[in-house]
Amino acid sequence: MSVTAAQGFRAAGTAAGLKSTGKPDVALVVNDGPLDVAAAVFTSNRVVAAPVTWSRQVVADGRASAVVLNSGGANACTGPEGFLDTHRTAEHTADALGVSAGDTVVCSTGLIGVRLPMEKLLPGVDAAVAALSADGGSDAAQAIMTTDTVAKTAVVTVETASGTWTVGGMAKGAGMLAPGLATMLSVITTDAAVDAATADAALRAATTATFDRVDSDGCMSTNDTVVLLASGASGQSPTLDELTAAVTEVSASLSRQLVADAEGASHDIAVEVVGAHSEDAAVAVARAVTRSNLFKAAVFGNDPNWGRVLSAVGTVPESVAAFDATTLDVSINGVQVCRAGGVGEDRDLVDLAAQREVRVLVDLHAGDATAIVWTNDLTHDYVHENSAYSS
Amino acid sequence: MSVTAAQGFRAAGTAAGLKSTGKPDVALVVNDGPLDVAAAVFTSNRVVAAPVTWSRQVVADGRASAVVLNSGGANACTGPEGFLDTHRTAEHTADALGVSAGDTVVCSTGLIGVRLPMEKLLPGVDAAVAALSADGGSDAAQAIMTTDTVAKTAVVTVETASGTWTVGGMAKGAGMLAPGLATMLSVITTDAAVDAATADAALRAATTATFDRVDSDGCMSTNDTVVLLASGASGQSPTLDELTAAVTEVSASLSRQLVADAEGASHDIAVEVVGAHSEDAAVAVARAVTRSNLFKAAVFGNDPNWGRVLSAVGTVPESVAAFDATTLDVSINGVQVCRAGGVGEDRDLVDLAAQREVRVLVDLHAGDATAIVWTNDLTHDYVHENSAYSS
Predict the structure, then answer these.
(1) Disruptive mutation site among B339, B387, B389 for chain A (greatest number of A CBs within 10 Å)
(2) CA gap B282, B100 in Å, rounded
(3) Any idea what the CATH number is for the domain that residue B86 is in?
(4) Which of A10, A371, A377, A362 is nearest to A187 (CA)?
(5) B300 with A387: Cβ contact below 8 A
(6) Which of A79, A176, A311 is closest, CB to CB, to B221?
(7) Tens of pLDDT, residues A256-289
(8) Is A67 on the interface with B (CB under 8 A)?
(9) Does the distance separating the beta carbons of A112 and B297 come in below 8 Å?
(10) How far apart are CA A212 and CA B369, in angstroms?
(11) Is the pLDDT score of A389 beyond 70?
(12) Where is the active site (chains A, B) (predicted)?
């Protein structure tokens, strides 16, 4: 059900011909209210696509009526003309829906540096408007896929004494996944009745702990966008903590699905850092490990090469993370292969071939803070997909 | 001739059985003077191998008599016992040469997290001492190779009105090549008569501009060491600038050879950033591009994917490099594929298949500073070599 699990939303996904395969490539999500609350977070890349520039303005007032998304073209690095294309897309969508263009979020994904074929996109928007349905969440999730092999959706329903409310979402992304944010588009909807400030705070807390801690290949996109829309249709008014918990659960599920479908990966790797003096330090150390091509290639070869973990940990500056290199411990899938910076248990006790998931635990012995960052292994298929597929 | 091109040096390379292949794995370089000036730079990794800890102490006084090097084991993450192994190696070498252990630099390279087989290494040192020769430079260069497919050596001879002096060097390294330093060992010798401060200043200037700007795979080693030894045997006393120029030329040649022999690479990529407000900014932007797996995979596929260059440039924080994303220009092999942050010349004009070398030029339009960082493409063979070879 994805974005239409919550009450007050309709969605659609249609094929406008932007993809040469003829697969669905235009998605639309509409908030029918009564509220039109919206919040969004965007890529921290300084090179941003036209739809990111546009949508930042749209959500600045905490309101949005619709999100129109296309795959088959990122509309990034397309100059002033590309921005006009986004503007036209928003106006066309808004006119068809009877809402304001200034309340219409636009998201695009696909190849950078190519103009969108507007003569195909705008009729596709019309078709999506005509196809809008309270059951359209799955179609929308299909239409935003690029190299994804499966659509990613998640739903959390919260039952309380006074009634139930729901958070549902969809996401796309299978490569160029990196912090701040992963390469991805995601729309999350809720029928909770919350104000814009609450929606914004909940979304930022949720993405910081989930999407921001997925680092498939260290490459940050120009188009990343996560939008949260609240319709208020359930009549339920959760607290900030309650909303944050539900949005975090949906975001965690979606981001875990991104890792599981990462381009060409054969392993999902959770790098957990404990004993850090701060959460930021734990994240920095975990990220250093998730960015090590050598370690990621070793995992592909089912080699529990803890030396490559330590050499990655050692690249984090002292100003960022406190630790004494001679006290570092590393476990892989529960086997403590490195103890006090030296040789621990026999690395042959670690069987990486048995399952897709790999757990790396690094203990810095410098405090109580922890963090987990997810990544994937570096495989032949990753190289193949990203050398043959031009995006 | 490598490290024995300059007068006053002997060297050797022998097989001690550290490598299962039976190939040479112990190298020795001896400075016969009259001077025993030495300088060295080491990895900036906080996790360092025992020989790095040892050798930092050795060169602290600006003097060294010998460098003993082994491949077939990094002696990294081996605890206090590993440090004792390094100490024993230095003492054993010094005793055989009749010098002080405190003047004996030790370098190791190979698998992290495994103790060295001292019962093989020490007899290997004896054999190397017995084989020392003024023609031994090539043998030494062979003995420090790990996954290198060719030995790397370089020689510069400077002729002046008063006589000639020479700088020669050897290096190893084919993977785990990253800034501060690349994964590598290098010994550079000169028969110039210079003091320790001059040697140190020349070496630091040379490595900053050469070895530090090689970033094959973003992975920083625990063992990187570059040692400069000066014998004074030529009787010539160049200025700091003259020595820096010659050492830089040797270092540039050696680091270029490292890139050309990088594990599994099919392209050498020079990322040149111009128009930066500072050299540090130029290096940071260039490094962001050389660390993009997506761009490196695209180059492997002979795809001039400038969108991946721009998305990498955009990850550099404003506090590090000033630029306006809408004025960025990118050329690949002379074709300006991106102009003012948008589409430039037709990307199909770029032929990456024709040659191994790729030149990427990024103009930030924010100043006059420039820098070049070298990297390689991301290939199937890189993944294969680093998943199958455990180092």
Answers:
(1) B387
(2) 44
(3) 3.60.70.12
(4) A10
(5) yes
(6) A311
(7) 888 888 778 899 999 999 999 999 999 999 988 9
(8) no
(9) no
(10) 33
(11) no
(12) 183
Q: What is the CATH number of the domain that holds B277?
A: 3.10.20.340
Residues A180 and A328 in one domain: no
- The verdict on whether residue B172 carries a ligand-binding annotation is yes
Per DSSP (E only), the strands in chain A are 9-14, 26-31, 37-42, 66-70, 104-108, 152-160, 163-172, 185-190, 225-230, 268-276, 329-332, 335-339, 342-343, 357-363, 369-376
Query: Could you tell me which of B91, B82, B76 has the C-alpha nearest to residue B43?
Result: B76
- Could you tell me if A118 lies within 8 Å of chain B, comparing CB atoms? no
Integer Cα distance of B206 and B6 in angstroms: 18
My answer on whether A20 and A135 are in the same domain is yes
- Binding site listing of A for substrate: 146, 172, 183, 263, 386, 391
Residue closest to B144 by CA, chosen among B265, B254, B5: B254
CA distance B218 to B382: 13
Catalytic residue among B183, B207, B244, B290: B183
Could you list the residue range(s) of the whole structural domain that residue B153 is in? Answer: 2-260
> What tokens appear for B136 in the block?
């031994």
Which of A303, A328, A391 is nearest residue B387 as measured by Cβ atoms? A303
Domain finish residue from A210, A236, A260: A260
Please give the pLDDT value at position B388.
62
How many domains is chain A partitioned into structurally? 2
Among A197, A228, A260, give the residue marking a domain's end.
A260
User: Are the C-beta atoms of B282 and B369 separated by less than 8 Å?
Assistant: yes
**Alpha carbon of A362: minimum distance to chain B alpha carbons (Å):** 14
Sheet hosting strand A163-172, strand order edge to edge: A37-42, A225-230, A185-190, A163-172, A152-160
Pick the more confident residue, A111 or B241.
B241
Q: Which residues of A are catalytic?
A: 183
Q: A232 and A142, same structural domain?
A: yes
Give me the residue from B300, B306, B383 closest to A300, CB to CB.
B383
The C-alpha angle with vertex B10 and arms to B9 and B16, in degrees rounded to 5, equals 145
Are both A54 and A12 inside the same structural domain? Answer: yes
- Cβ–Cβ contact B314 with A under 8 A: yes
Question: Domain check: are B163 and B284 in the same one?
Answer: no
Range of weakest confidence among A156-160, A312-316, B101-105, B201-205: A312-316
Residues 82-101 of A with CB under 8 A from B: 82
pLDDT at B348 over 60: yes
- Smallest CA–CA distance from A319 into chain B, residue: B46
Nearest residue of A to residue B74 by CA position?
A: A307
Q: Please check whether residue B223 touches A, CB under 8 A.
A: no
| B114 at A interface, C-beta within 8 A | yes
E strand segments, A15-130: 26-31, 37-42, 66-70, 104-108
B244 shares its domain with B289: no
Q: Are B6 and B228 in contact (CB under 8 A)?
A: no
**CA pseudo-torsion sign B176, B179, B185, B188:** positive
Across the interface, whether the CB atoms of B338 and A301 are under 8 A apart is answered no
What is the SS3 assignment for A252? helix
Whether residues A99 and A228 share a domain: the answer is yes
- Co-location of B131 and B26 in the same domain: yes
The DSSP bridge pattern shows strands A163-172 and A152-160 to be antiparallel
Q: Are A371 and A284 in contact (CB under 8 A)?
A: no
* B301 interaction partners in chain A (CB closer than 8 Å): 386-388
B183 labelled as ligand-binding?
yes
